[in-house]
Amino acid sequence: MKVLVTGVGGFIGAHVARRFLAAGHAVAGADDFSSGYRENVPPGVELVEGDLAEPGTITALPRDCELILHLAGQSSGEISFDDPVSDLRKNTVSTLNLIRYGIACGARRFVYASSMSCYGSVPDAPIAESSPCLPLSCYGVGKLAAEGYLRVYARQLPFVALRMFNVYGPGQDLSNLRQGMVSIYLAQALAAGRVQVKGSLDRFRDFIYIDDVVEAWWQAAFRAEAAGQAINVGTGRRTCVRELLEAMRPHVPGMDWYVEGSTPGDQSGIYADGRQLGEQLGMTRFVPLSEGLARFAGWARAQSA
Ligand SMILES: NC(=O)c1ccc[n+]([C@@H]2O[C@H](COP(=O)([O-])OP(=O)(O)OC[C@H]3O[C@@H](n4cnc5c(N)ncnc54)[C@H](O)[C@@H]3O)[C@@H](O)[C@H]2O)c1
Q1: Residue 302 C-alpha to ligand 1 middle, in angstroms?
Q2: Is the pLDDT of residue 265 over 80?
Q3: How distant, in Å, are the alpha carbons of 1, 65, 130, 203, 288 from that of 4?
Q4: I need a surface site. Which of 68, 123, 181, 195 has the fewest CB within 10 A?
Q5: What's the CA gap between 211 and 75, in Å, rounded?
Q6: Residues classed as catalytic
Q7: For the whole prediction, is pTM greater than 0.85?
Q8: Domain count, the chain
Q9: Residues 33 and 160 in one domain
Q10: Strands 207-209, 109-115: parallel, antiparallel or unpaired by DSSP?
């Protein structure tokens, strides 16, 4: 089978592409390298370079992809406020273009990189997919709108929207200090021994290791029961920022932190209700945070060595 992986030069897209290549599938990739890197693109990927919001990039894509895994996008809530129109183009217009391309090519499924940012402010309880979606950032608005377009065209192109929570692990961009809570803290801890926490230490998140996320993408591509669903991709475990920093400490001895500033559109706390992930994608066991952090910190140290 031929698979199109967009955002193939990015953190999650490169991992997902490697999984499909390893299973023997042909992989085409697309990326404009606005935040990703050419060197991330796994060998063997047939690459189309360009912004998927531009019709010219869509025209250059191969026409024989059966599966579309759409991970390209501007991936930071904070950055979405710098230029909201650009965020809308990069995340939502690109998705609409790709849906229409998928229909024209007769693709059999479209899996979309949605986000927990769709939910906005939520109570301190596991958040199910049926919860109201009232995003707080321009990024979240764009992700939710993209899900809306997928529903509009669902009869012509079956979809799965994966609402990923906080993904972390090797391959994450340690030079980007505006996306990825774990990678931002780890990068600062390794570089300076001191982490700036923008917002309360009592905020809480659901941190999911990259291998578990890749498994969710794999299952979402094939499982019949996932079609037409938005599915949370989180561990169901609530971890506050203070606990995250304490869990990082053994891997970066002597690290410290201070609280200063805030992030626009930040959610104060959110973690997943994982029942649908279990029922529809068969995932109930996850890499524990301590183990994931050990692997990530080991990789990060090797990068800087
Ligand atoms: N990392 C997370 O915790 C997380 C959580 C929820 C959702 N997501 C979503 O998952 C996807 C992948 O995230 P990531 O962490 O790998 O981010 P990333 O920035 O590492 O990867 C995104 C890739 O998409 C490319 N890109 C951006 N806009 C593009 C466009 N219009 N056309 C072509 N290429 C484009 C970038 O150059 C980059 O290589 C994103 O859509 C992001 O919004 C990520």
Answers
A1: 24
A2: no
A3: 10, 6, 29, 36, 30
A4: 123
A5: 19
A6: 139
A7: yes
A8: 2
A9: yes
A10: unpaired
Same domain, 77 and 112: yes
Average confidence (pLDDT) over 223-250: 97
Q: Are residues 84 and 176 in the same domain?
A: no
Q: 175 lies in which domain range?
A: 169-205+237-268+287-304
Instruction: Identify whether 123 is part of a domain.
Output: yes
Q: What is the mean pLDDT of residues 237-247?
A: 97
Judge whether 188 and 180 are in contact, CB under 8 Å.
no
Residues 262, 211 share a domain: no
Ligand 1, atom 41, lies closest to the CA of: 73
Please, which pLDDT band fits residue 288 given cuts at 50, 70 and 90?
Answer: very high
Enumerate residues lining ligand 1, CB below 6 A: 7, 9-13, 30-36, 51-53, 71-75, 90, 94, 113, 115, 164, 166-167, 173, 180
Residues 56-84 have a mean pLDDT of 96
Domain assignment present for residue 277? The answer is no
C-alpha 71 – ligand 1 centre gap (Å): 5
Whole-number mean pLDDT of the chain? Answer: 96
Q: Which atom of ligand 1 is nearest to the CA of 13?
A: 16
181 plus 162 within the same structural domain = no
Contact 109, 160 (CB under 8 A): yes
Indicate whether 60 and 98 sit together in one domain.
yes
Based on the fold, state whether residues 219 and 181 are members of the same structural domain.
Answer: no
